[in-house]
Design brief:
The protein is α+β, with helices and mostly antiparallel strands. It is built from nine helices and six strands. The strands form two sheets. The chain has a four-stranded mixed beta sheet with strand order 3-5-6-4, covered by helices on one side. The protein has a two-stranded antiparallel sheet with strand order 1-2. The relative contact order is 0.08.
């Protein structure tokens, strides 16, 4: 209760100070182009006084709640009560923006400078051009002084990229390839009515190194990795069928395919095909 009482006093004091400041600006008509500066300084004063008192008596910031109250009051008084016919134009938009900036500086600054500037820079390509220039500059020094190789011009990298196409995985061809093995792949753990003989547990794996071609986009590298994983899955199943066939079987049950990362920093993919080899009788 003591904390609530002290917090209430801090908020109330800040709100009263904000109202006094707003009344002062209204009384002396301190304005620019008809726009009263109290709309800015009233919420700022309220939030400032509240924050000082809260830090001194409570030991923490309450979040300038009084500034929020002053924002609501000054907006209602100025734009609705005193001037209900004020239209929606560039002046009112600018006024509301400044009031929001005064009442919620952190949130508004984040929206303006982080989100807003980020959207503008994204569509204009400013950061892309800067990072592209810095990347080529660092790469040039690395190739010249570390690798002792001549720096590949950016135009050459673009031409090299144009000549490269990420292969598309052919699902139909993959299915036909697996089905032509004359081998049964089953995830079931038991064949129930089918007469069979268990041969043993078999495990095969395929290791695929991650693609690290620098002149490709992240999406192209991801597409290439997906293609290699699908292709590696087929190779793993073929290896499994060959091992079971060499042991006298013609099928696998309880089949499980696992994908994982191995190597330093996960620089390679490993695909495992595990199952119980069986010999099915007709």
């Amino acid at each position: 209760m003591k904390y609530i009482r002290e917090a209430f006093i801090c908020i109330l004091t800040g709100t009263l100070v904000g109202l006094v400041v707003y009344g002062f600006f209204l009384h002396f008509n301190i304005a620019i182009y008809g726009w009263n500066l109290g709309l800015i300084f009233a919420p700022l004063s309220a939030g400032y006084v509240e924050t000082i008192l809260a830090n001194r008596f409570i030991g923490e910031n309450l979040g300038a709640i009084s500034a929020f109250f002053l924002f609501i009051y000054t907006t209602f008084y100025s734009f609705i009560l005193k001037n209900p016919t004020l239209g929606f134009n560039i002046i009112t938009i600018g006024s509301i923006a400044v009031i929001l900036q005064a009442a919620f500086p952190t949130a508004v600054n984040y929206i303006l400078f982080s989100i807003g500037f980020g959207i503008i820079s994204y569509f204009s390509g400013i950061f892309k051009k800067i990072t592209h220039y810095v990347y080529n500059l660092i790469l040039g020094y690395y190739e010249k002084y570390v690798l002792k190789e001549p720096h590949i011009l950016d135009l050459e990298r673009i031409e090299e990229k144009k000549s490269y196409e990420v292969p598309t995985f052919n699902e139909k061809e993959s299915n036909e390839r697996i089905n032509s093995l004359d081998f049964y792949f089953m995830t079931s753990t038991d064949l129930i009515t089918r007469k069979h003989e268990n041969i043993g547990i078999f495990n095969t794996h395929v290791i695929i190194e991650k693609y690290k071609r620098l002149n490709l986009t992240p999406q192209e590298i991801e597409d290439k990795a997906l293609y290699e994983l699908k292709k590696g899955k087929d190779e793993c199943l073929i290896k499994l069928s060959e091992e079971i066939k060499s042991a006298g079987g013609n099928g696998v049950i309880d089949l499980e395919i696992q994908y994982g990362l191995i190597g330093l920093g996960g620089d390679s993919f490993q695909i495992n095909a595990i199952g119980i080899g069986v010999k099915l009788f007709s």
